């Protein structure tokens, strides 16, 4: 099975598309959606299907449907998935070329006047027949993933292009250009804004470090995630979050945020250190697995030799091996 469309092009598994579950739906409804699919793919519902179809249904359940449901049904993993969606949403809003649309429904949604109604209708139509023909399930998932990508792009665009509130008379007076050669308030605003942003970030990081000192990594992670929610392109936040995830034993998320930090700051030392530690763990895991495999093989060979040496003895068998020894 290939997964090349929509959010899959952004190296992200689109669990919503796998289940045909709307991005706009309430999380509590995911169980109902999952059970509906599980019934369709259950062996009792496929009694008249071919052996190949039953095998395909089993693979879909075990490799895609069940993992997607596990992520979206558990509070912790669902929150992490939402953070990833937010990150991908911002990527899509700044660079639409990241996704090439192939389905007509996604292309139509891109220009639909009513985004919410258009998305709901297109998703419902695609999900209705998603598991009718098991050989075309992946095509349906890809189409839904494209719809999700378009929905995220347009939602982000609508957020960033909202018309600001009318300025008060005092604000108008402050921003009116003057003849004297002094910096205008508008030119000073970015510096002020950056200062405020830095203050907010530092408060989050300070609290996170306090929790880290207490080895309460989960609460520290929550603090840094809050900082990233309001400052998604801050490399220091992503790097620190990756280090906290590594300490809490969540290697996958540590890798994601270390990578994100290096996108915004290729020279970030914390992110580089985390990535190096992850690479070392991966290499050590492979070495340990090979060692275990070799040890098992050696033990097996030793067992065979020991078994051969016992063939000539009268006493033997399982019980004598357990209770051992010759009677005196």
Q: Can you describe this structure?
A:
By secondary structure, the chain is mostly helical. The chain folds into 2 domains: 6-160, no CATH class; 193-293, Serine Threonine Protein Phosphatase 5, Tetratricopeptide repeat, CATH 1.25.40. The chain has helices spanning 15-19, 30-41, 51-73, 75-94, 104-110, 115-128, 137-160, 169-175, 185-213, 217-230, 235-247, 251-264, 269-309, 317-323. Helix 5 (104-110) packs parallel to helix 7 (137-160) and helix 6 runs antiparallel to helix 7 (137-160). The longest helix has 41 residues, at 269-309.
The biggest beta sheet is recorded as:
none
Distance between the ends: 67 Å
The best one-word shape is flat
Helix content: over 70%
Strand/helix succession: HHHHHHHHHHHHHH
What is the number of beta strands? Answer: 0
The low-confidence runs, each spanning 5 or more residues with pLDDT under 50, are 165-189, 311-328
In round numbers, the mean pLDDT is 77
Which structural class best describes the helix and strand composition?
A: mainly alpha
- Number of helical runs? 14
- How much beta, percentage-wise? under 5%
Query: How large, in whole angstroms, is the Cα Rg?
Result: 28 Å
Number of domains: 2
Task: Please render the helix and strand layout as text.
Elements: H1 15-19, H2 30-41, H3 51-73, H4 75-94, H5 104-110, H6 115-128, H7 137-160, H8 169-175, H9 185-213, H10 217-230, H11 235-247, H12 251-264, H13 269-309, H14 317-323
């Amino acid at each position: 099975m290939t997964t090349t469309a929509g959010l899959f092009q952004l190296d992200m598994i689109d669990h919503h598309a796998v289940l045909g579950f709307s991005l706009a739906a309430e999380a509590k409804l995911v169980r109902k959606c999952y059970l509906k699919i599980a019934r369709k793919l259950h062996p009792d519902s496929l009694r008249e299907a071919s052996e190949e179809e039953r095998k395909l249904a089993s693979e879909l359940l075990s490799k895609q449907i069940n993992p997607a449901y596990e992520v979206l049904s558990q509070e912790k993993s669902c929150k992490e998935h939402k953070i990833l969606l937010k990150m991908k949403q911002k990527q899509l809003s700044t660079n639409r070329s990241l996704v090439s649309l192939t389905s007509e429904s996604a292309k139509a949604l891109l220009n639909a006047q009513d985004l919410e109604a258009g998305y709901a209708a297109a998703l419902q139509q695609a999900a209705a027949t998603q598991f009718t023909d098991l050989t075309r399930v992946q095509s349906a998932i890809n189409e839904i993933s494209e719809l999700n990508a378009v929905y995220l792009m347009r939602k982000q665009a609508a957020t960033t292009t909202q018309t600001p509130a009318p300025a008060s008379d005092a604000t108008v007076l402050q921003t009116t250009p003057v003849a004297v050669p002094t910096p205008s308030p508008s030119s000073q605003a970015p510096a002020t804004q950056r200062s405020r942003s830095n203050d907010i970030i530092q408060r989050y990081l300070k609290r996170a470090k306090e929790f880290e000192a207490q080895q309460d990594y989960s609460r520290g992670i929550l603090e840094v995630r809050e900082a990233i929610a309001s400052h998604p392109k801050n490399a220091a936040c992503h790097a620190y979050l990756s280090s906290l995830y590594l300490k809490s034993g969540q290697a996958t998320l540590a890798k994601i945020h270390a990578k994100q930090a290096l996108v915004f700051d290729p020279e970030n030392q914390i992110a580089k250190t985390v990535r190096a530690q992850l690479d070392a763990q991966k290499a050590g895991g492979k070495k340990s697995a090979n060692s275990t495999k070799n040890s098992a093989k050696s033990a097996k060979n030793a067992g065979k030799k020991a078994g051969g040496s016992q063939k000539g003895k009268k006493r033997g068998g399982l019980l004598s091996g357990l209770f051992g020894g010759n009677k005196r």
